[in-house]
Amino acid sequence: MPLMSFVHLRTHTEFSVVDSTLRINDMVAAAAADGQGAIAITDLSNLFGAVKLYSAARKVGVKPIIGADVWLAPQGGEKQPSRLLLLAATAAGYANLCTLLTCAWTQPADVPRRTQAWIDWEQLSACADGLIALSGADQGAIGQALLARDGEGAKRVARRLSAIFPRRFYIELQRAGGATNEAHVRASVPLAAELGLPVVATHPVQFLAPDDFEAHEARVCVAEGETLANPRRVKRFNPEQYFKTQAQMEALFADLPSALANSVEIARRCNLSLVLGKPQLPDFPTPTVDGVQLSPEAYFRHLSHEGLERRLNQLYPEAGQRDAERARYVARLEFEIETILKMGFAGYFLIVADFIAWARDNGCPVGPGRGSGAGSLVAYSLAITDLDPLRYKLLFERFLNPDRVSMPDFDIDFCQGNRDRVIDYVKDKYGRDAVSQIATFGTM
Fold first, then answer.
1. For labelling, which of 134, 365, 378, 385 has a CA lying 20 to 30 Å from the CA of 22?
2. Burial of 395 (0-12, 13-18, 19+ CB in 10 A)
3. Range 192-195 contact pairs with CB under 8 angstroms and sequence separation of 24 or more
4. Mind listing the pLDDT tens digit for each residue in 241-269?
């Protein structure tokens, strides 16, 4: 990592739909232009932009840091949740952050009409490994207590969080034009010194340049159903929340150089490496034969040849004709099997064949095959499709090609009335944690 004086660790992007206009590619370009060797993405309660940042940052030699700005459930006499910033330092931390956000969005609300995805303290404690936590500045539980002049309450929360994140918890300081920023800094620095906790400077970035503030405010109004002209509208943001340079941050925190240095230190501690472009498929439960557990690859080959023999019996009822045609079918089948095994997709074919067979056996009408998948003899042998590709001279290479590695994609048509039954079967067999619907992440 190049020599730096500051790294942005708190950035909301266009994936924080309600409060940011910052595009990831623009943010990465700004970081690279300013010599910042790392940049974090910390959208509000989501990781939707994580992969896009990871890819864009690595292309220009900037270290990507994945995190999220989360709501922490109120405790004690608190009525509202507080903010906490979580950064993934390791792969385990990234997995834990995913778990925390999933629980926050999917578990039943324990408060009527709760609109935010809260993280419970118990969940936070159970999933803290591999995460670095920042206190949330004046919107965090510690900051709120300090601004309310509840020093003892602030200490209790700080001790609790530092125990959950040993040597991975920082008191967060901001000078971003907020009305309570400076009061919070003046109260936080002595508290951090008393408790032996490090401080770190952050800047809440919501847009790229100062000139973007007006457009950002219009965006916020759209999200809140407000108008710019309303004099009673609560303004939550200010023109200072743009992507500041290292020099600008040095000027803001000239009296607290350690807070700037710790932003760089945190960036050094975050070393998440993601594997992209490689399918992650559930394990297919294979049977045992003579006490030996078959591998998915061996079972896939066995079922393919077994299925081909059934198809040949249907296509060529006369044994003589069947024997004459078998060689070209077997040759094509073996070619496809070797290609599929080489590309690592045996489990995918087994899974698709399994739920299609279940659908047919349980009264769920299934289409005969559509798209390039109809060109696969393996698919025909496994009863995924019902079209003989050799008869119609269909090309397997249009479906799978070793020179253009991508996930095979079967277009499968279930009748509308039974589709949910098939999905429930897949969830029950492979585990609900291993099955999800396709999601589209929207930006504005």
1. 134
2. exposed
3. 194/155, 195/155, 195/158, 195/159, 195/162
4. 999 999 999 999 999 999 999 999 999 99
Query: β-strands 63-72, 288-289: how paired?
Result: unpaired
Q: Could you tell me if residue 58 is left (phi over 0), alpha (psi between -120 and 50 degrees) or otherwise beta?
A: alpha
> Per-residue pLDDT averaged across 380-393, rounded?
96
- Provide, for the chain, the percentages of residues in helix, strand and coil under a 3-state DSSP scheme, each rounded to the nearest 5: 45, 10, 45
Q: How far is CA 106 from the centre of its chain?
A: 15
Give dist(CA 199, CA 86) in Å, integer: 15
* Mean pLDDT for all residues in the chain: 93
Q: Report the pLDDT averaged over residues 198-226.
A: 94
DSSP 349-394: HHHHHHHHHHHHHTT--B-S-BSGGGG-HHHHHTTS----TTTTT-
Residues in CB range of 127: below 8 A, 6 or more apart? 96, 97, 99, 100
Q: Across-strand partners of 411?
A: 370
Which amino acid, residue 271? Answer: N
Which residues are bridge partners to 86 per DSSP?
A: 68, 133
List, for residues 127-170, the tens digit of each pLDDT value. Answer: 999 999 999 999 999 999 999 999 999 999 999 999 999 999 99
- Give the residue from 87, 95, 94 showing the smallest Cα distance to 200: 87
Q: What is the pLDDT of residue 436?
A: 83
- The amino acid that residue 139 corresponds to is Q
| Cβ-contact 400, 349 below 8 angstroms | no
* 384-388 contacts, C-beta under 8 A, 24 or more apart: 384/349, 384/352, 384/353, 384/356, 384/410, 384/412, 385/410, 388/311, 388/315
Cα 315 vs. chain centroid, distance in angstroms?
47
